[in-house]
Amino acid sequence: MGKGEGGRGTGGTGGTGGVAAATDAVKQRLGKLKPRVAIVLGSGLGVLADEVVNPIRIPYNTIPGFPEPGVAGHKGLLVGGTLEEVPVLVQAGRFHLYEGDPAGVAGLPARVFAELGVEILIVTNAAGGVRRTFPGGTLMLIADHINLMWRNPLIGQPQPGEQRFPIMHESYDGELRALARTVAREMGIRLEEGVYVGLLGPSYETPAEVRMLERLGADAVGMSTVPEVLVARSRGMRCLGFSIITNPGAGISGEALSHEEVLAVSERVARQLSVLLKGVLRRMRLA
Ligand code: HPA
Known about the structure:
The longest helix is centred in the C-terminal third of the chain and has 25 residues, at 259-283. Helix 4 links the parallel strand 7 (192-199) and strand 8 (220-222). This protein is 30% helix and 24% strand. By secondary structure, the chain is an alpha/beta fold. Strands 5-8-7-6-9 form a five-stranded mixed barrel. Residues 1-11 have low confidence and may be disordered. The chain has a single domain (10-286), classed as Nucleoside phosphorylase domain (Rossmann fold). It binds hypoxanthine (HPA).
């Protein structure tokens, strides 16, 4: 079996056993902490991991099945603790499909979060702007996504507790989005809203591809997020997502883009996003 394929019935994660082993390792380290919200940090968004109160740092090399992230700007650890008194688990460093792992690996952390009882998944990413009015530095609330990765972590036998055919209507929870808009308005943070399209990468798009994505109804383009949200929805977790638009998509501004620029802009806007996220956490009503 090639590295890019999932084995039959395993979802490419080593199956239920793989999820259980990873969950056990994380659970043991968390002790009494029962995270209710998980937050996945995208490229350059690591600052939030440093703000977790009473942090329990769990490096990926201590979690079975978690590879080391191979991308600059991505750490490799889960951080448990509290943010605004909400018990959280922050994922600093995600697994991208372009790194060559099966989709099940990209979805593995979300499966572990579900097993740990996490109810809300917050995803963040760096993305290129497809909507022409989105300059670099724009913060975008994800209204919906388009999966153009041609991969899905749910392929294979459904794991316990997962729906075979998850409903993707309102995948990004309407109530949580309304809360994010309210908090942003109150804090004076400009927040756009739009559709994120996930591509496999790792090459950035051509200008012709960006024009195509625009016609397909996308507002932002990136190489992550979709696998985690697919797993979360199959487990009934509510999702909330934010893109930091680090650059206009290829061909829009005429300037060539680079990963260094992506990281620099992301780090700048990340401070704003972490203030917004903490505001949302403060106001989240957890039953
Ligand atoms: N395209 C895809 N992914 C990205 C981009 C982009 O322009 N910028 C940051 N992540």
